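Minutes, methods subgroup
Present: GH (chair), OT, SY

1. OT presented the first of two proteins processed in the latest run. Sequence and structure tokens recorded below as shown on screen.
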Amino acid sequence: MYMEQVRAAVIGFGGMGRQYAQMIYGGEIEGMCLAGVCCRNKPGQEILGKEYPGVSVYQDVEDALAHGEEFDAAVIVTPHTSHVEIGLKMVRAGKHILVDKPAGVCAGDVRTLVQAAKEGKVSFGMIFNIRMTPAFQKAKELLDQGALGKISRVAWICNTWYRTPAYHGSAPWRSSWEGEGGGLLINQSQHYLDIWQWLFGMPDAVLATLDYGKFNDFDVDDNADIQFFYRNGIHGTFITSSGENPGVNRLEVWGTKGRLAVEDTSRVILDENVMPTDEFARVNQEIYGTLGHHSREIPVEPNERGYQKLLSNFADHLLTGAPLVADGYEGLKTVIMTNGAYLSSWQGKKLGLPVDEAEFKAILRGKQGN
């Protein structure tokens, strides 16, 4: 039996927490209402009291749980290192959870949360709103249909994350091992690492070259060149940075039937070979035989209201049983990729995935001063 309306509590009232609270309170998420907001600081509590009449204000997570009868689901929008801890408390209280990226900072901990949600028979969703982008949805449709044949190479340059010290210093937990559990990879890149594994599946090995504080006065990563390897022959390169400008966002995929490109998350270009490369290799008799191809842009809808669509999907899931766009296990996959990239960088070698979770956690704790 499903509920009639999802009563949501937003846990965290920072930048994104405020946006989610506003969306829900403003009626932008069909089937969901804002029951409460957890905010520990006085200025935020005053804003909630003035601008969100009728919404409960919780002093902390324990206060929220003490009023658990007021809400059905928790939208967790707190610093990264607290996601698993808060998620476990909510799950054990029988609350459904929707977690902003990342699911956590250590794959082993996220695995525990995924299992706890399963055992508690509550839903665990991820805020991977980029999956709602029409261009990536079209790319997935084409790849699933086999439009490229056998894929051999993926190259993605995404360095549109330029950030200055004003951003990195906007909260005491940001851009630090202790507060954020990393930098560029555990923060901005979670979205596109998720899209990577959504489109191409989980890689089998990783080799990463990361720069720490290349553009900033901190110890975490702000530049990355990562290679992903697959047993099926795919070789991928993922390049990202938060210190370069102007940036580009260009995904290119090559297969036997041609090339697929997604430009700036809004344009989809399919460049199709006249015949597959493996077939042409068998029949061609010319030394410098040229394989013809033709390119076309595939129209897609504008990228609008991604967050609203994602939250609406979570509400629809709880109300009608509709499949989640991204569940907690999908969040685990992205953390596995991230942990692998970090450990590969620290050890200077190619590593199979998943990496030793206990080893990764021990090194991370050392960086956190624990």
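2. SY then presented the second protein from the same run.
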Amino acid sequence: MRHRIAGRKLNRKTSHRISMLRNMTKSLIRNEQIETTLPKAKDLRPFVEKILTKGKKDDLSSRRRVFSYLRDNVLVEKVFSTLAKRYVNRNGGYVRILKSGFRYGDSAPMAIIELVDRDSNAKGLIDKIRKEKKENEVDSSKSNKIENEIPEKKNLVSKIKEEISEDSKTKGDSKKKEVDKS
């Protein structure tokens, strides 16, 4: 009999299951919305809600407890500064689970788990920032390469432009001559 046994084993050993839930919790707090299977989402909900409830009580003990779960100072700061202020008047129910169909490969029921009243810009924000930094670095390196090119190439480009403009002038003159002849 399974009296007073909560949660699912999810076909994993205890240590693997706990580390998986911690990783999913980090992703959920960072992005405020993730997609996973329905049983994992149902097991993740109490894990996250306990952390957010601890975040509402801002003292050293709570910060250390949350850090022991998350092991990331940036996420701990987000829990205590952003999320605690957002949920100060809410007595639980910080997480919403929405069913999202079935996975293509094995028809596993999928679900989207998200924080209630989430910030829509938070999802993928870190990736967007990293991508912008990378693009800026690429643009600056390209401009540096162009600036550092040999001045002869710049002169060559200007000469080619002059020749093109001269050719267009001579073609225009030849067309005028043709018009004059007729």
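Chair's summary of item 2: The longest strand covers residues 95-102.
Next meeting: continue with the remaining queue.
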